[in-house]
Amino acid sequence: MKIVLLGPPGAGKGTQAKSICNRFSIPHISTGDIFRKHISEMTLLGIEAKKNIDKGLLVPDDITIQLVEERLKQEDCNKGYLLDGFPRTVAQAKALDNFLVKNNDSLTTALLIDVPKDFIIERMSGRRVCLSCGASYHNKFNPPIIEGKCDVCGSDVIQRKDDEESTVRNRLEIYDAQTQPLINYYRDKNLLSVVDGTQAINDVFKNICDILGREINDNYKE
Ligand code: ADP
Ligand code: AMP
Q1: Which of 28, 30, 31 best tests ligand 2's pocket when mutated (most atoms within 8 Å of CB)?
Q2: What digits encode the pLDDT tens for the residues 81-112?
Q3: Which listed residue (94, 160, 169, 187) is catalytic?
Q4: How far lies 78's CA from each of 1, 26, 145, in Å?
Q5: Considering only CA atoms, which residue is closest to atom 15 of ligand 2?
């Protein structure tokens, strides 16, 4: 099963990705998490990416595409994967298509978590993340059991610098201009499925499982 998760920042992609990947035993590939790991390790790529991320801008396509292609070539991706936060531009979507074609492969579905803008600021301002494993929490909607500590790995849970309100507004503008066109891109390829992301976290997940069950029957090839 090969899934692309689409949706504006704060839609709940990371939250749902963790549950989907546990349920279907596929790797969770989050470009945002990969960049944050490079930043925390102060690699050259991390230093370059940070300049864009802190301003709410996208990391350039060539860097991002190369990073994802390298990740997809790893053995754990043979049976499937979930891409969270990639593609974010039409150029990235085309690069992913080329990669799939070269490997005689195809996507199972592009799943849009649909959330209107008025929900986003509250979700982003309350978001707290674990820098170690990438788990995402919300101080009102989904708090960790022990305040400030990740339920999964016990590391510190912090607020992302790019979740400050002014940066979030930039990210939403960039989403509208560069990422939203992917909804039609995948609709035209008959690959788009949509879930209502305004429901409670567990209800969104239940709907996603229903959708993926259908897509597995219709489109899934080993
Ligand atoms: P994304 O990966 O799409 O940017 P996240 O999964 O990190 O989004 O979710 C953004 C914030 O909203 C987090 O604080 C998360 O806990 C919270 N959240 C996610 N899904 C829901 C939901 N269905 N209802 C309320 N809050 C949610
Ligand atoms: P995310 O964790 O998905 O919200 O991503 C955090 C930030 O990382 C984004 O605001 C971008 O700056 C950068 N980023 C993540 N994925 C991509 C991508 N596919 N293309 C370009 N930049 C990305």
Answers
A1: 31
A2: 999 999 999 999 999 999 999 999 999 999 99
A3: 160
A4: 10, 9, 35
A5: 32
In this structure, the residues whose C-beta lies within 6 A of any atom of ligand 1 are 7, 9-15, 123, 126-127, 136-138, 141-142, 197, 199-201, 204
**Homologous superfamily in CATH for domain 2-26+79-116+167-221:** P-loop containing nucleotide triphosphate hydrolases (3.40.50.300)
Token readout for 86 is: 């990639």
Task: Provide the residue ranges of all domains of the chain, joining segments of one domain with +.
Answer: 2-26+79-116+167-221
Is 123 considered catalytic here?
Answer: no
- Decide if 160 is catalytic: yes
23 in catalytic set: no
Among 9, 30, 51, 6, residue whose Cα is nearest residue 171 = 9
Residue 206 to residue 202: CA distance in whole angstroms? 6
Name the residue among 129, 132, 127 with its Cα closest to residue 153: 132
Give 35-78 pLDDT, tens digit per residue: 999 999 999 999 999 999 999 999 999 999 999 999 999 999 99
